[in-house]
Design goal:
Blueprint (H helix, E strand, L loop, with lengths): L12 E5 L2 H6 L8 E4 L1 H9 L3 H7 L3 H6 L3 E3 L7 E7 L3 E9 L3 E9 L3 H11 L2 E3 L5
Parallel strand pairs: 2-6
Antiparallel strand pairs: 1-2, 3-4, 3-7, 4-5, 5-6
């Protein structure tokens, strides 16, 4: 199934499927591995200055979610998953949970000093290479 993301949609969109192993490792309570993006996230991306990153990579997001290079969890948000993909940039995909709606894309952006941040998060155990989960 091909997922097409419309960056100008005013509707909630399916943007990918989180690997089951990552969800189970972090004990995320959700009824499905589908990740949705409510239209408010697009406003958030524009407001936070991440819009150009989103436009650059929006067609790759379903693959980035399904095949991350690294995965982890923000210690301040225990019901979240962070997925990282190394492309031209080091991209962070923040996925959050909502008990009523399941998994949703909370944010998406290229990390400043991405390589350094990835190495630091690996060192502290905040994230792991994706092969760790499978």
């Amino acid at each position: 199934m091909t997922i097409i993301i419309n960056p100008y949609s005013t509707d909630t969109q399916l943007v990918g499927y989180v690997p089951e192993a990552v969800v189970k490792y972090y004990c995320i309570n959700c009824s499905s591995y589908e990740v949705y993006m409510p239209p408010g996230v697009l406003k958030h991306l524009k407001k936070r200055g991440h819009w150009n990153d989103f436009l650059k990579y929006h067609t790759d997001i379903p693959n980035m979610i399904a095949n991350p290079d690294y995965a982890g969890q923000n210690p301040k948000e225990p019901d979240s998953i962070e997925l990282y993909k190394v492309v031209d940039d080091h991209v962070l995909i923040a996925i959050k949970t909502n008990p009523a709606n399941g998994l949703f894309l909370g944010s998406f952006y290229s990390l400043d000093q991405g390589k350094k941040k990835i190495q630091g998060r690996l060192r502290t155990g905040r994230i792991h290479p994706f092969k760790f989960f499978i």
